[in-house]
Amino acid sequence: QVQLRESGGGLVQPGGSLRLSCAASGGIISINDMRWYRQAPGKQRELVASITHDGTTNYADSVKGRFTISRDNAKNTVYLQMNSLKSEDTAVYYCYGDVRASPLRRSQDYWGQGTQVTVSS
Asked: For 78, how many CA atoms within 13 A lie in the half-sphere containing its CB?
């Protein structure tokens, strides 16, 4: 069974940095898009960054120039380097993958359980 597991969240001061990781496992044939979303208290989940299998990236305007998404296809892992963090970046960050796990089926959406990022002094 496919699982996505995030790590790397925590408490950081404004201006600081964190690196999130999300490792996919469980009989994976291939992964198309991988993305990071976040959800702050009382707000809807929003797309933060995405990366295609060949490395094309896109970012939300609010994180451009501060966050970098990357992936290691050999390890089925996606990363989010977050620099110059602000209090408004505080949220639960979720990993998403468009994963193909069977030669007989199309790819499906999979989500991680989320990791808390808190930016506070």
From this structure: 32
